[in-house]
Design goal:
Layout (H helix, E strand, L loop, with lengths): L11 E7 L7 H12 L3 E7 L5 H10 L4 E4 L4 H7 L2 E2 L1 H6 L4 E5 L2 E5 L2 H12 L8 E5 L3 H12 L4 E5 L3 H11 L5 E4 L9 E6 L17 E9 L8 H8 L4 E3 L2 H16 L5 H14 L2
Helix pairs in contact: 1-9, 5-6, 5-9, 9-10
The structure holds 2'-monophosphoadenosine-5'-diphosphate (ATR).
């Protein structure tokens, strides 16, 4: 008789893998999404040691895991590991979302669409025909290039401390739109409508060397980082009269929402979750 009740009541398993991972907000975000949409799933954070990524993913898959988010420093390794890649993952050179299907490991990248959805849907910002400056030429910048260019800005300039990397990144995406790369000194006498910080500078409490006259009228400044306090770049932008200064919390929730959709086919209400997290961040500090 007891066999009748011997069914698998385990919830579908998801996780984020990275290093460090202890402060990841992804488990909280996906738990809120699951509650909101009535999806039965469990989402945990898994710290992976350097060199242990492939075996950690294989183990997660073998134990019935349904999907993973991948964060620093494993997004490129994930790109190499998966058996299939979406076009946006292929282009980004990085995978932040894996969906496990029978004998298949599907790699996707939701970072870029997360940024664009936060700008366009949550903040009513139009990117078409705008002069956009993207600071940084590492993985974070590469991941948002294609979705930004798909919005058809007048020009997307990549600026980097090491100018050659900015030029190479622009060259790799020129087929998608008007883009060019340069170093910070070349920004002198140029103005931009939208300035996006994809450097690691905020993480180190640093500010890229931006000229004072960089912002056009009604400029919007976006830092992909977030925290309880505005980053140095956000402070710089406010002091120079930016019309809107935004942090990366919305992007974080939007990339998660897109991953959730990839896995479950259901779109959560991301705005409500952004509001909840903002409140939690404010009261925890
Ligand atoms: P990520 O994957 O987060 O993009 P990354 O690939 O290490 O990380 O890239 C970090 C980016 O931040 C690079 O563009 C780096 O500039 P360099 O290529 O010249 O190293 C940029 N960066 C880091 N600290 C910076 C600072 N203080 N000022 C300006 N740019 C900075």
């Amino acid at each position: 008789m007891s066999d009748l009740f011997d069914f698998d009541i385990r919830k579908d398993q998801y996780a984020v893998m990275g290093n460090p991972i202890a402060h990841s907000k992804s488990p909280r975000i996906h738990t809120l999404f699951a509650e909101q949409t009535g999806q039965r799933l469990e989402y945990t954070a898994i710290q992976v040691d350097p060199g242990g990524f492939d075996s950690a993913v294989t183990h997660f898959d073998a134990t019935g895991g349904k999907g993973l988010n991948i964060t620093v420093p494993f997004k490129q390794e994930a790109w190499a590991l998966v058996t299939e890649r979406s076009e946006r993952a292929e282009r980004a050179g990085a995978v932040n979302t894996i969906k496990f299907e029978k004998n298949k490991m599907l790699g996707d990248n939701t970072d870029g669409v997360g940024l664009v959805n936060d700008l366009v849907n949550n903040n009513d910002i139009v990117l078409a025909d705008k002069q956009i400056l993207l600071m940084g030429a590492g993985g974070a910048a590469r991941g948002v290039m294609a979705p930004l260019l798909q919005q058809q800005p007048a020009r997307l300039v990549i600026v980097n401390r090491t100018p050659d990397k900015a030029v190479a990144l622009a060259d790799a995406f020129r087929d998608l739109g008007n883009t060019e790369g340069c170093g910070y000194p070349a920004l002198q006498d140029q103005q931009f409508d939208i300035v996006i910080n994809a450097t690691a500078a905020s993480l180190h409490g640093e500010l890229p060397p931006l000229p004072d006259e960089l912002l056009a009228d009604n400029a919007i400044c976006y830092d992909m980082m977030y925290g309880a306090k505005p980053t140095l770049f956000m402070q710089w932008a406010s002091e120079r009269g930016a019309a809107k200064v935004l942090d990366g919390l919305g992007m974080l929730v939007e990339q998660a929402a897109e991953s959730f959709y990839v896995w479950r086919g259901v779109r959560p209400d991301s705005k409500a979750v952004i509001a909840t997290l903002r409140q939690e961040i404010a009261t925890s500090n």
